[in-house]
Structure formats: structure tokens, C-alpha cells
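Entry, Tuesday afternoon. Goal for today is a structural model of the target with zinc ion bound, before we commit to ordering more compound. Inputs were pasted exactly as handed over by J.K., no edits. I checked the ligand SMILES twice against the vendor sheet because last time a stereocentre got dropped in transcription.
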Amino acid sequence: METTQRVEIDGARVQSLLDELHAIGRRPVGGTFRGLYSEAWREAHARIKGWMAEAGLEVRVDAVGNIWGLVPGREAGPPIVAGSHYDTVPDGGKYDGQLGHVGALVAVEALRRQLGQPRRSLAVLAACEEEGSRFTCNFWASRAITGAIGADEPYQLRDFDGVLLADEMRASGFDPARVAEAATNEIGAFLELHIEQGPILGRMADAAGASAPRIVGAVTAITGTGRLLVTLTGQPDHTGTTPMPGRRDALLGAAEVALALREMALGVGPLARLTVARMEVFPNIPNVVAGEVRFTVDARHPEPAVELQLMESARQRAHDAARTRGLECRVDELWNQPPVQMAPALVETVRQSIAALGYRPVDIVAGAGHDSQLLGRRFPTAMIFTITGNGGRSHCPDEYASPEDCQAGVEVLAEALRRLAY
Ligand SMILES: [Zn+2]
């Protein structure tokens, strides 16, 4: 049994750094937007770099704008890295991504001040982009780190105003021809502290009552996401002159599939998700039977085999609905991000760190994408989840995490880093 040497975390400093960042890119009404390589992004980039330098870290900015703050250890070897992303979605909240790199900075600073030089090197990572909310470049930071960005991507991706990513890179002081130089193997392990962005931990805490130990999540896996595009084709007939029997109504087929997928996911179990959330109806006129409907199916599960099975079942169900309603059916797979298991030994370190601090560890599966999803395929990776207030709302100005939950998350991160690096 390892001993716990409690590292004091300055929770007020965590809050003030989060507040400072939230003000950068803040809109007069609502939340903050810091899209990749935007003016607000550049300002946040400079601010975070300054914080790391003030904290005495060796600051390095890579070819895409990831900020690394190193504390060299006594032994050689790649650093234990902690962090998350500093971009936001439009109208984003204060905590998504930000708690991860701010928390890592405060934790590493505290460790260095209170325990001195670590045995293994430590590094804070403020990742330049994860949300894909300005350019459709999803996971720009972690794809750059893992060498997964194509050489022509900066010259192809445009934002919603038609601005080329390569031009915005140059304006931010980066050379789009050198993206590949951001790739690195120098990560001994990666830890990401993040708000849950869902209601599960909060509901457990409500059920346990106010006097129960505070809950912190140990993420065991990041769910896989599959996306299908289903096209059902029937016949666009007049709604007044065409009798009900014999119609080939594509919208009824789509409705049947949407309802059936919900039942299917409920039958598979609480970790399965099947959702129809985007639908295009043609001709989309009140007095014409829908001749064609295109809709997406979003399928999620943390086990690769089950995720694939959900996709296959959804595909099958669409074909079945089409057959009984006299429709044609075509199913295209738009993408398939397989689930990622977190490193078991690191997850155990996170659980033990939570328990050692007197909090209650709860295993949880991450239902959204994270930097850890890509980094976790290459490096030993684990995530720490904190309770998200307001019923778990996220990607909106209502996003909330209590100062106490933020503090607990940073304490757990510091304790896990202590166990790994000292
Ligand atoms: Zn995030």
C-alpha cells in the first residue's frame, strides 16, 4: 500500500485561471468561442505560455501550437504528461478542456514547490485544438502529436467564412509546411482531467446524499462512435388524391427506424446509444408524400464488438423497414471511431489516488471524444472525470462544475502524478 503525502492544491488559483481564460473570446451574450488560430485563440495561447513560464516550467511550443511545459526529472525517459485542450466550441463554457490544462499546471506547480524535483520528468500539455468547431479538423492537436495529419490538410480545410487553415496558421506564427514536426514519441503516460459533460456522476452523488464522500470518476474506456447515413426512397405522391394504402412514404420508414433503434439500444444495455438526430425530407412540402428521406444514425458503445454490432443491427433494421414499406434503402458508413480502452494500470492508479484522498472512486465510460481517444491508442493513457453541474450540460454557457469538484479533480491529478513521477 502506497503512502499518501497530501499535496496542497490552491483551489482559488484554479478558479481564477479558469475565469481569466473564459474572458478571452467571451461574447457579449452567452459563452466563449476560441476557434483554432483565431484572435481569441492567439490571446489564450500567449496567456497560457506566460503562466507556464512564470511557474518555472521549460516552455516549448510545437509546430501546430501545442504548449508543453516541462519539469525535468532526475532520471532519463519520456515525461509523464497531463493536460487537455484550450480551444472551445462556439458559445462554450468555462470548464471543457480548460480544467484539464489549468489543473495540470496548478498540480505540477504544487508538486514541484512542495516535493522538489521529480524522479521522472513531468510535463503540462495545453493542446491547441480538439473540438473541430472552426475547421473540420477534429483532434488537430492529438493528430499532430501522433503524426496523423496529412501534408495537404492545412491547404484544404476552410472555416465557415471560407478562410484557409494554412493562412490562419501563418497569421498565428506557424508554418503549415512543418505540421509533421509536431509528431513526438516523448510521452511516457498521459493523464487528462476533464468534466464528465454528462449527468451520471452527479446523479450518483445526489443519490448518495450530501454527507457521502465526494465522487470522482475513473474513466475505463472512451466510447466508440459509428455514424451511418441512411437514404430511404419511396414515391412523392399528392397527399389528397393518393389513398393511404399503397403509398410509398419514406418518412414513415424513417420514423419506424428511429423508434426501433431506441428500443434496440435500451435492449442492449445502459452503455449502448443509438440516435437519429438529423433528417432531410424531400421534397419537404406539406401536401406531397415524402419521396425520399436521408437521416443519420449515431451509434456508440465502449466495446468494439458491440459498437460494430449496433451499427450492423441499425443497418439491418433500416433495410427491414424499407422492405415492408416498399422503399429502396441505401446505407453508407460515414465514419467509425473505434472505442479506446484506457491503460488498466493507470486507471488503477487513478482509482487509488481518488480513494487515498478520501473521495469515492467510480468507474465510468466517456461518452464523448477527447484528446485521450487518440493519444490513448499510442501512449498509456487515463482520464479523471469530475461531476458536471446543471444536470451535466456542456458545450453551452450553462456548463458548470463546482469549485469543490474542480479542486477534488486537481488534487486527484496531483496525487496520481506524484505516484507516477516521484
Ligand atoms: Zn473537451
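The two ends are 15 Å apart (CA to CA).
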